[in-house]
């Protein structure tokens, strides 16, 4: 089976190693894919820049540099890096958190920080961390992002000034209060683009539907004229037709501290987006994906774009999938993508400036609606209550608290719920039913457990700090209620055990020993004897009370049982099952 690689990292462009095998056929496929996706991307990346509170042309600047640098230094031949909905929303939130600083300096500093975090993640080979982010948390975040996008574009659709309040519910209320001031032309323009995108959604991957819808809106705005009140992109910021200029500014320590949470959120969420689409397309096409190398490519692309008026971005699901679908063969498709955008900026800045702002708002509302994946949300509700809780908490924090903390809230919730679930120790009493057959009676509910000098208990799961107190209570209850003189713990199905649970076991073993009892542990690793000896516990857990795990199921446990029953006095109190088992062993 194909498995993505997650190790080696190179700071030299990996793409250069492919040029020796690069064919004319591959170039034709890459050129077709790059041009096609660039045409689709122009209105999209401009809309994302507007979503971030920046000039629309900055979306083009960011897409140019990010796509090329990430293609050169990344691992996936398909992932298109550039502005995305989540990165734009997080950028807007970060800029709002530093109202007193120079916007250009704050933006450059934020983007560099995001890049450095991602490069460090790749350099230190932290690709394994991604697997610990619950998919339900990411789903809750994307659902929240969709809602934020739709609400955030309401004032553009209505043609009214942007609200001054940042909190989402209050922002929506303030916008709706301005309904009497709304213009019919901007509203119809935005709704027209939204309707066209929804109706033609099934054709969106074969035809540049977004380009056609936005071009149609621009034509309508031109026919209606300035008196209709439709704001154009050039009204927000002129598109000069020049490439971005190099600039270097770094914010002060106080501003960097304020930007830190947003930078971490942007880095983590962006890497999740890039790796999610990269792994999906890698498995589909049976091509390797080096996750850590992709981290480096994503990071260097952010650092590069920071110095040329760009803003943070990540891998785009829609653009990456389109590159693969229209035949892209190598990362060269993303290089062609960047070159075509350069030609667009230099060749037709006037046309780009004629795009109505309301049309881009309608396009963004469509993107927001597409983020609401009803099928996956229903699947979460049908499969796991824990994941439902994680998804809901992530959504609430994203929308109603702060988008920067949404995903982290989901991760923390997932960890806490996992710890709580894992702390529910599963313990079963083992009762003989034949020579080498044992039945299980769970220690829960109304299941009765009889008095016996021999009690055997099987523990299941991970014995970590969250289960330590439960382990103490369960062993103490067994000692009080069943009053055994010999207690056998079968730990074959214990996958790991940490200090807290070892300490709980040692404390119980000492107390049990002082009361005249003997504790036997079986089904453990061979090095457990060393652990017990180093802890100074061999005086109550002697070597002959420890039975290492065997490849044969119940072999170690059966050896412990034979030893215990052989040591018991004839007048020992045994339950019927253990008494019958002792007779079988004596006869056999």
**Radius of gyration, whole Å:** 32 Å
Strand content: 5-15%
Average pLDDT score: 85
Q: What's the number of structural domains?
A: 2
* Secondary structure tally, helices: 24
Which regions contain 5 or more consecutive residues with pLDDT less than 50? 1-6
Relative helix content: 55-70%
What secondary-structure arrangement, pairings included, does this model have?
Blueprint lengths: L23 H28 L5 H17 L6 E3 L2 H12 L6 H21 L11 H18 L1 H5 L9 H10 L6 H16 L9 H16 L8 H4 L16 H33 L5 H16 L7 E3 H9 L6 H16 L1 H5 L3 H14 L3 H10 L1 H17 L1 H20 L3 E7 L5 E5 L11 E10 L4 H15 L3 E5 L3 E4 L1 H16 L3 E7 L3 H7 L11 E3 L6 H13 L8 H12 L1
Parallel strand pairs: 5-6, 5-7, 6-8, 8-9
Antiparallel strand pairs: 1-2, 3-4, 3-5
Helix pairs in contact: 1-2, 1-3, 1-9, 1-13, 1-14, 1-16, 2-12, 2-14, 3-11, 4-11, 4-12, 5-16, 5-18, 5-19, 8-9, 8-16, 11-12, 11-13, 11-19, 18-19, 20-21
Descriptive overview:
The protein has 24 helices and nine strands. The protein is of the alpha/beta class. The strands form two sheets. Strands 3, 4, 5, 6, 7, 8 and 9 form a seven-stranded mixed β-sheet that branches. It has a two-stranded antiparallel sheet with strand order 1-2. Helix 20 links the parallel strand 5 and strand 6 (486-490). Helix 4 (103-123) runs antiparallel to helix 12 (291-306) and helix 20 (468-482) packs parallel to helix 21. Mean pLDDT is 85; it is low at 1-6.
């Amino acid at each position: 089976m194909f498995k993505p690689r997650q190790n080696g990292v190179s700071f030299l462009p990996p793409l250069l190693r492919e040029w020796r095998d690069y064919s004319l056929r591959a170039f034709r496929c890459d050129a077709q894919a790059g041009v096609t996706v660039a045409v689709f991307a122009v209105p999209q990346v401009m809309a994302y820049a507007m979503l971030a509170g920046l000039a629309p042309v900055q979306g083009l600047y960011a897409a140019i540099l990010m796509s090329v640098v990430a293609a050169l230094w990344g691992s996936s031949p398909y992932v298109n890096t550039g502005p995305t909905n989540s990165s734009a929303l997080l950028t807007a939130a970060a800029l709002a958190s530093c109202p007193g600083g120079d916007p250009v300096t704050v933006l450059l500093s934020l983007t560099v920080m995001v890049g450095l975090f991602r490069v460090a993640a790749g350099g230190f080979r932290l690709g394994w961390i991604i697997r610990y982010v619950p998919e339900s948390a990411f789903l809750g975040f994307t659902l929240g992002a969709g809602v934020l996008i739709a609400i955030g574009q309401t004032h553009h659709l209505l043609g009214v000034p942007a609200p001054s309040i940042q909190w989402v519910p209050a922002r929506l209320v303030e916008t709706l209060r301005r309904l009497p001031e709304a213009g019919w032309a901007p509203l119809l323009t935005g709704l027209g683009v939204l309707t066209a995108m929804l109706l033609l959604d099934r054709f969106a991957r074969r035809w540049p539907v977004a380009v056609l819808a936005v071009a149609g809106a621009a034509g309508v705005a031109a026919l209606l004229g300035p008196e209709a009140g439709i704001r154009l992109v050039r009204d927000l910021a002129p598109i000069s037709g020049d490439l971005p200029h190099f600039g270097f500014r770094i914010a002060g320590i106080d501003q960097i501290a304020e930007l830190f949470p947003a930078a971490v959120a942007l880095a983590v969420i962006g890497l999740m987006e890039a790796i999610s689409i990269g792994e999906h397309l890698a498995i589909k096409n049976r091509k390797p994906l080096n996750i850590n190398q992709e981290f480096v490519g994503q990071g260097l692309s952010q650092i590069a774009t920071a110095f040329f008026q760009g803003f943070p971005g990540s891998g785009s699901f829609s653009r990456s999938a389109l590159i693969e679908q229209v035949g892209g063969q190598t990362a060269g498709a993303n290089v062609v993508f960047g070159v075509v955008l350069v030609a667009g900026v230099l060749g037709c800045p006037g046309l780009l400036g004629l795009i109505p702002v309301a049309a881009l708002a309608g396009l963004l509302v469509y993107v927001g609606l597409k983020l609401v994946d009803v099928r996956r949300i229903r699947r979460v509700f049908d499969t796991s209550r824990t994941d439902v809780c994680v998804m809901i908490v992530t959504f609430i924090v994203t929308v109603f608290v702060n988008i920067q903390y949404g995903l982290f809230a989901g991760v923390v919730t997932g960890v806490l719920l996992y710890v709580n679930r894992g702390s529910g120790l599963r313990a079963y009493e083992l009762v003989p039913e034949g020579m080498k057959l044992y039945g299980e009676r769970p220690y829960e509910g109304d299941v009765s457990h009889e008095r016996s000098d021999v009690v055997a208990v099987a523990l299941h799961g991970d014995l970590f700090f969250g289960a330590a107190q439960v382990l103490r209570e369960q062993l103490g209850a067994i000692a009080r209620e069943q009053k055994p003189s010999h207690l056998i713990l079968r730990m074959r199905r214990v996958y790991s055990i940490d200090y807290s649970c070892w300490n709980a076991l040692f404390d119980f073993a000492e107390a049990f020993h002082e009361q005249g009892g003997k504790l036997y542990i079986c089904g453990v690793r061979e090095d457990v004897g060393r652990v017990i000896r180093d802890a100074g516990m061999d005086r109550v857990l002697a070597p002959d009370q420890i039975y290492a795990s065997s490849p044969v199921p119940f072999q170690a446990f059966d050896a412990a049982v034979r030893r215990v029953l052989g040591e018991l006095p004839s007048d020992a109190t045994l339950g019927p099952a253990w008494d019958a088992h002792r007779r079988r062993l004596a006869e056999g």
